[in-house]
Design goal:
Layout: E1 12-16, H1 20-31, E2 35-39, E3 51-53, E4 62-64, E5 70-71, H2 75-83, E6 90-92, E7 103-106, E8 109-112, H3 117-126, H4 135-151, H5 154-172, E9 181-182, E10 188-189, H6 191-197, H7 199-202, H8 210-219, E11 224-227, H9 232-241, E12 246-247, E13 252-257, E14 262-268, E15 271-277, E16 279-282, H10 286-289, E17 293-295, H11 299-307, E18 310-311, E19 313-320, E20 334-338, E21 342-345, E22 357-365, H12 366-373, H13 377-391, E23 401-408, E24 419-420, H14 427-438, E25 444-446, H15 458-474, E26 483-485
Parallel strand pairs: 1-2, 1-16, 2-12, 13-17, 16-25
Antiparallel strand pairs: 3-4, 5-11, 6-11, 7-8, 9-10, 13-14, 14-15, 15-26, 18-24, 19-22, 19-23, 20-21, 21-22
Helix pairs in contact: 1-9, 1-15, 3-4, 4-5
Bound molecules: flavin-adenine dinucleotide (FAD).
Residues 16-22, 39-42, 47-49, 66-70, 251-252, 283-285, 288, 313, 315, 409, 414-415, 418-419, 448-449, 456-461 line the site of flavin-adenine dinucleotide.
């Protein structure tokens, strides 16, 4: 992936954070002949790639509490899937609106996706305050709003309808929309084909909707993949291919940029220890970094570290005795469950069926995720069970729910957020933020999804790692690593 013909040379590089960006960077830096050591604060590697297994051994049911799907067009991710020998594990990922039998919440209650169009158009029209559009444009607006409602957090949903009706519909009406109508009743709208055929509409207006459209089209794309056996295989294949030490439980508390080195302060018991490092690649999310002791950074860098906006994400999963949803005509994909639960996914049963089937009962983002994330875990699980059982009363059958697990990323100590959001920012503002986040300070380099053009995706994390490797490689080498102990240090 990294062409380092002009960039070879042994440097000693300290990578902080063993998420996908830190691991990819370490792997590539070693390929270029450098010595790498990785320090991870938590007790596990992988960061926001987090496959939870309900038990141990082969054929154990699992759920992705972090990343779960890869858009086919995410070339960085797909390249590493291939490079790490995992291409034969790629399988289709079925998402929202892919399953006609799944449910969609409307003001009239739960409706099957196949029957939802009329109701969605009716609801969309009511919100237009009398402005008239042709039927096909209404269908476009209704389905786009439905996707937005299912995916966008509450604070964004409020402005979404206005943005769609004010910014998009007038332009959309001028286009022949017939080629994008789908289904026997011609009441489905192929938004992916439409935006692919009309990129000018997407980039029109203020550009506020650009990143939003990118993300929701990715999340509902018909071209999504999963990794059979779990996304954490990416992490463990990298681990197997990295020669240098990967040390967990090594929390970094501070970074001090000096002229030709960086002092890294680690927690050790009740005290700290400071290491002098030639080069440091920091992949700690800025949501965490902003609360560490930082010295020697420029005012611009401090500003971007403090200002980058994160959205929360919360997932709650049930291990069920059996995939009861199949008896209800749902073979996969996801329902829009509304309420506090938002999205419910039906992953395929890959494990031994006798060990149960996993329902990703709730996937929320932004302030919706915080509502669930701030609840004590037991209460969070109770709320989700109660709400999902209104859609799927089978959950209340004795013994149906065998186990419940959740992860609230906004409250998680090692990320304090699900990912960086740039929704509502135009292309120029996105670029300025990305460049500022990725810009090195002396011998301190930065990577992580927050330093990329595709934030909140694995692809962005990898892009940032590859870019950081180039930057480090082009920096003139210097010598020596000395450990300096401070009060209470080990
Ligand atoms: C719920 C959810 C769903 C997602 N779904 C998808 C998806 O379907 N597809 C997709 O492509 N992407 C998805 N993403 C995004 C993707 O998971 C992330 O963009 C990517 O994994 C981030 O990698 P990273 O290396 O930048 O950060 P991280 O994975 O967060 O790695 C940073 C590492 O730094 C460590 N760290 C933090 N603080 C310290 C410290 N003080 N000292 C030392 N170490 C520290 C952390 O423990 C962590 O291991 C999802 C994310 C979430 C949360």
């Amino acid at each position: 992936m990294v062409d380092g013909s002009a960039e070879r040379g042994a440097k000693k590089i300290t990578v902080v954070g063993a998420g996908i960006s830190g691991l990819i960077a370490a792997y590539e830096l070693e390929q270029l002949g450098n010595d790498v050591e990785i320090f991870e604060g938590s007790s596990r590697i992988g960061g926001r790639i987090c496959t939870h297994r309900f038990g141990s051994g082969e054929f154990t049911p699992f759920v992705e509490l972090g990343a779960m799907r890869i858009p086919a067009k995410h070339r960085y991710t797909m390249d590493y899937v291939e490079k790490l020998g995992l291409a034969d594990r790629l399988a289709d990922f079925r998402t929202l609106f892919s399953e006609e039998g799944a449910y969609h919440t409307t003001s009239a209650g739960f409706i099957r996706v196949r029957d939802a169009a009329q109701k969605l158009v009716h609801e969309f029209r009511l919100g237009l305050n009398g402005t008239r559009y042709c039927d096909d444009a209404l269908l476009f607006g209704a389905w786009l709003t439905a996707i937005g409602n299912a995916i966008a957090p509450a604070n964004f949903r409020v402005t979404l309808r206005n943005d769609i009706s004010v910014e998009l519909l007038k332009l959309v009406e001028k286009v022949d929309l017939k080629p994008f109508l789908r289904g026997d009743r011609r009441d489905r709208f192929d938004l992916h084909a439409f935006f692919a055929a009309h990129p000018e509409i997407r980039s029109s207006g203020s550009g506020r909707l650009n990143r939003f459209l990118d993300d929701i089209l990715n999340e509902t794309s018909p071209e999504l993949a999963r990794l059979e056996g779990g996304m954490d295989q990416l992490v463990h294949r990298l681990e197997d291919n990295i020669r240098g030490p990967i040390l967990c439980n090594q929390e970094v508390l501070g970074l001090d940029v000096q002229d030709d080195h960086v002092l890294v302060e680690f927690r050790r018991g009740t005290g700290t220890v400071v290491r002098r490092c030639d080069y440091v690649l920091c992949t700690i999310p800025f949501s965490i970094l902003r609360s560490l002791r930082l010295n020697g950074l420029s005012p611009d860098k401090r500003a971007v570290i403090n200002e980058v906006a994160y959205w929360s994400a919360t997932k709650v999963a049930f291990l069920c005795r059996e995939p009861f949803w199949e008896g209800d005509g749902i073979t996969g994909g996801a329902s829009f469950s509304g309420g506090r639960v938002r999205q419910t996914y039906y992953p395929p049963v890959e494990a031994d069926p006798a060990r149960g089937a996993v329902l990703l009962a709730s996937y929320t983002m932004g302030d919706d995720a915080d509502v669930l994330g701030r609840l004590p875990q037991a209460q969070r699980h109770e709320v989700v069970l109660d709400e999902v059982a209104r859609m799927h009363p089978e959950l209340l059958r004795p013994g149906m729910v065998v186990d419940i697990v959740s992860r609230a990323w906004g409250q998680y100590r090692w990320s304090r957020g699900g990912g960086v959001t740039r929704w509502g920012k135009d292309a120029m503002a996105c670029g300025v933020e990305r460049d500022g986040a990725a810009r090195p300070e002396g011998r301190l380099f930065f990577a992580g999804e927050h330093c990329s053009s595709t934030t909140a995706w694995i692809d962005g994390a990898i892009e940032s790692a590859v870019n950081a490797v180039h930057k480090i490689s082009r920096t003139q080498p210097s010598r020596c690593t000395v450990a300096v102990a401070r009060a209470g240090g080990v």
